[in-house]
Amino acid sequence: MKKILPKYTQWTNLRSLIFLAIVVSSLVFILLYQEYFSLHTFKAGAATALLYVEANRLQGALIFMVFYFMFCALPMPFVSAPTMLAGFLFGNIDGLLIVSFMSTIGGTTLFLITRYLCSDWIQINVANKFSRLQQASNSDSFMFALSLRLMPGMPFSIPAMVLGLSKLSALKFYCSTQLGLLTILFVYVNAGKSLSQINSVDDIFS
Length: 206
Known about the structure:
Number of helices: 8
Largest sheet: none
Strand content: under 5%
Distance between the termini: 62 Å
Number of strands: 0
Helix content: over 70%
């Protein structure tokens, strides 16, 4: 056992470093290129993207699905602008289907990355705080996960990263994410029809 523990600890630390590198890289990427992810940038390229989608709808949908999945699988704090773009490019039904499944699959990917890259390190180093989170999640796992998704103003990646540290199953996380995000995603997708008239996310709810 004494020989195994150091190797286990080294592997745990390595996984934690990998996860930390992903988070830091995402934050640096956002800070350096944040102007490219603003609503105004998406609006500027929307007309060109629409022309491409109208000529190559299936290919355009596949490209957008990969783009949206990457947005959700990385620790990005916001997905409102690309969600509205989906409504503008594909309409309410197709746009909602795309963002609903890609956000759920991307969020579940981030959930699993968090679980398998840094959960052991957190259990060892912050056991007291983590045990409280586990108790809250385990009391009613699905409802706890659903409540996080229904909280207004909650950054997209936070529930995936928080619940990745709990004992919640990936299936329950997937279902709670798909159900919990459906309403707000529809609001953003529907707003995409009036993308040219929207200057900020607040305009959607005004």
